[in-house]
Specification:
This protein is of the alpha+beta class. It has one domain. Helix content is 34%, strand content 15%. The strands form two sheets. The protein has a four-stranded antiparallel sheet, covered by helices on one side. A three-stranded antiparallel sheet has the order 1-2-7, covered by helices on one side. Helix 2 runs antiparallel to helix 3. The mean pLDDT is 90.
């Protein structure tokens, strides 16, 4: 698992990855996953061997809920948000959500978060994260054409 991410604060989301980073995770899909799909620039790639690569430029909202954005929360929140995005896009199934939540807790602990806080973070995403992972109905997606 990578030990380093480089990011910056931005206004629209909260953070943006400044260097491509990779993490070996326990999800090994049958087929390579690219999000979004080529020919547009791919920001999330999950290989069949379980290597999650998040490309430079990917933006995420950092730790969610009533929490403090600390350094020991950033890698975990990045990977967690990317996995939830893959679930929302139906590239991964809802059955992968529990693994994503557990991985968040493990990454936070590895990065120095206290056991108590990591447990509270885990319970928060476990209890309240389903709506963030749930795929959106097509009727919820508004497509706008402009001249």
């Amino acid at each position: 698992m990578s030990t380093h991410i480089r990011y910056r604060k931005i206004t629209q989301y909260k953070y943006q990855v400044m260097e491509t980073c990779s993490f070996r995770i326990g999800i090994q899909p049958r087929e390579e996953i690219f999000e979004p799909k080529p020919p547009v620039k791919t920001y999330i790639h999950l290989s069949k061997e379980g290597m999650l690569t998040i490309s430079e430029g990917y933006a995420w909202d950092g730790p969610s809920g009533p929490t403090i954005d600390t350094k020991n929360f950033m890698r975990g929140s990045l990977v967690h948000d990317a996995l939830y995005q893959l679930i929302r896009q139906k590239a991964l199934g809802m059955e992968d959500r529990l693994y994503a939540d557990q991985l968040l807790r493990r990454m936070c602990r590895t990065d120095g978060m206290s056991m108590f806080r990591a447990w509270i973070v885990y319970l928060g995403v476990l209890w309240f994260g389903a709506s963030s992972a749930r795929p959106k109905d097509k009727k919820d997606v508004v497509i706008i054409d402009a001249p």
